[in-house]
Amino acid sequence: MSPHDAAVGQPTTDRPLTGRRVLVTGASAGIGAATARAIVAAGGRVALVARSQARLEELATELRALTPVAPAAPAVPGTGGGERGPGAAAGAEDAAEDDGPARAGLPADAPDTVGAEGPTVVVADADVVDAEAARAVVDAAAEQLGGLDAVINAAGIARPGPVASTPPADWQLMLDVNVRGLLHVTQAALPHLTAAVERDEHGRLVRAGDVVNVSSMSGRRVGSPAMGVYAASKAAVHALSGALRSEVGDDGVRVSVIAPGFVRTGIFEGQDTDAARQLGRKGEEVGLPPEQVADRIVEVLAAPPGLVHVEVAMVSVDQ
Ligand SMILES: NC(=O)c1ccc[n+]([C@@H]2O[C@H](COP(=O)([O-])OP(=O)(O)OC[C@H]3O[C@@H](n4cnc5c(N)ncnc54)[C@H](OP(=O)(O)O)[C@@H]3O)[C@@H](O)[C@H]2O)c1
Fold first, then answer.
1. pLDDT tens-digit profile of 59-107?
2. Can you identify the CATH homologous superfamily of domain 3-314?
3. Distance 72 CA to ligand 1 centre (A)
4. Which of 61, 12, 8, 14 shows the shortest CA–CA distance to 33?
5. Ligand 1 — pocket residues by CB below 6 A?
6. pTM
């Protein structure tokens, strides 16, 4: 199917995320980047969050080339974003008036580049450890996408090492990014997610919000002595996700945990320790491709609105 054949209104089997606006942290690499690709392929609109603006811009350019461009934008039923469908020619008329790129309705200094087809892919660079920066990019992304239906917390780091010899700054960094960063983004996203929730006249959920937290198998059991603090940070993600699920379920927001074992990404790269080198090699040998994790995340987002995947845990068969 040509991407130009894609419907711009209703979700279809091959584009189950049509009309959904998703913010992905950790989108500059690994699981987050693969997830952003999978979401756009499934018809969704994405805001890409990480610190490396250049890598986000590169991914955004790639994704905009995939994004279906529709000649016209019929209303998208149930989409808080109003008249603009995914990949639709949003703002086309306004853009024609000023000859500029289609940034209609956006502040001139919006921290985004917007494709000619409309704001289907938004770039928002920030360090999630900085609470104010996290809030600012979440708010800006929601404004530019016309709302927010889901947040995927995939930003994370691993600094493996024995407790006896690891520099405390490494523990601090892991807990900051993996726990506090996730909380900052989630807290900022919640008002946008609840605002996008829709129910029918019987009160049944027809459009849910989603918080998808990328934890780890290490959050369920400690797999390696060098991974104690990382595992503690991921156990915290499991615990916080469970608590948040009961906190916001009645508001129509689903909270899911993704718990992969080794995934073939660069998470251990650039670290000059035996533990990181050893775990990096293991990841290369037995890790799942990040695309397979991304596909599970799309399944979680595409589930019927009243169904929440509490946890999706996965490992490669040879791990
Ligand atoms: N790889 C595995 O074996 C594995 C297994 C289970 C779970 N996980 C989890 O999966 C998630 C993604 O990991 P990955 O393997 O895809 O790692 P990765 O390839 O190293 O990607 C990590 C992403 O997080 C971003 N990030 C790191 N610190 C950040 C910060 N302070 N603010 C904003 N963004 C930040 C990075 O972007 P910038 O550097 O541009 O900021 C990058 O986009 C992590 O939570 C990790 O714990 C990984």
1. 999 999 886 544 333 333 333 232 233 333 333 333 333 333 322 233 3
2. NAD(P)-binding Rossmann-like Domain (3.40.50.720)
3. 37
4. 61
5. 25-32, 50-52, 55, 127-129, 154-158, 177, 181, 214, 216, 260, 262-263, 265-267, 283, 287
6. 0.86
